[in-house]
Design goal:
By secondary structure, the protein is an alpha/beta fold. The chain has one domain: Vaccinia Virus protein VP39 (Rossmann fold), CATH 3.40.50. Strand 1, helix 2 and strand 2 form a beta-alpha-beta unit. Helix 6 crosses helix 7. The protein is globular. It starts with 19 loop residues before the first helix and ends with a strand.
């Protein structure tokens, strides 16, 4: 983890490995009862495949059509869409759980991967985290839950963005080098 390596089998797309972030997010998701779940930045859908979301309608959103081609439709419905367009495409308050493992490097602070797909999956601009949070807030009904994973140094920014978007009851979880934040939307 952290260097693009995984102990689990790789997907068919380099840079889209099943990482400890993915598995931790899937585990946390399984502890939240829900009927409709969105995974923002789903990639190949590994979070939805590994989460125990019984009888939930699941939607995986990603910008990469190549990643979505590997999405297993048994895990949910893949949708090609940028997070900045979520509020234009999906009805407000249609979900009770939103998951996200947003890119964790900004263009200015990342070590650039020579692989363009890996670079695309791991890098964004400085406001991308907040686009993920506000897209999640748009999708969630009042009382709905958002869970985001990220690097420990990004947690203060995550919490600030969540509070600005109307979330409360913010909890932090940590496993090894992976940190997650779980919050409830109060409208």
């Amino acid at each position: 983890m952290g260097r693009g390596k995984s102990i689990l089998p790789l997907t068919v797309i380099p840079g889209r490995e099943i990482t400890s972030d993915t598995l931790f997010l899937a585990e946390l998701a399984g502890s939240v009862p829900c009927s409709v779940c969105f995974d923002l930045g789903t990639g190949t859908g590994a979070v939805l495949e590994n989460a125990s979301l019984k009888d939930a309608f699941k939607v995986g959103i990603d910008l990469s059509i190549q990643a979505l081609r590997s999405f297993d439709r048994a895990a949910g419905q893949p949708v090609q869409c940028s997070v900045s367009m979520v509020s234009s495409i999906f009805k407000e308050g249609c979900a009770d759980l939103v998951l996200a493992n947003p890119p964790y490097y900004t263009v200015t602070d990342s070590r650039h991967s020579p692989d363009p797909l890996r670079r695309e999956a791991r890098q964004g601009d400085s406001l991308l985290l907040y686009r993920f949070i506000f897209a999640g807030a748009h999708l969630l009904c009042s009382g709905g839950c958002m869970i985001i994973t990220g690097r420990e140094e990004r947690i203060p920014g995550m919490k600030c963005g969540l509070r600005a978007a109307g979330f409360s009851r913010i909890e932090e979880f940590k496993r090894g080098r992976v940190t997650a934040v779980k919050a409830i939307l109060m409208r």
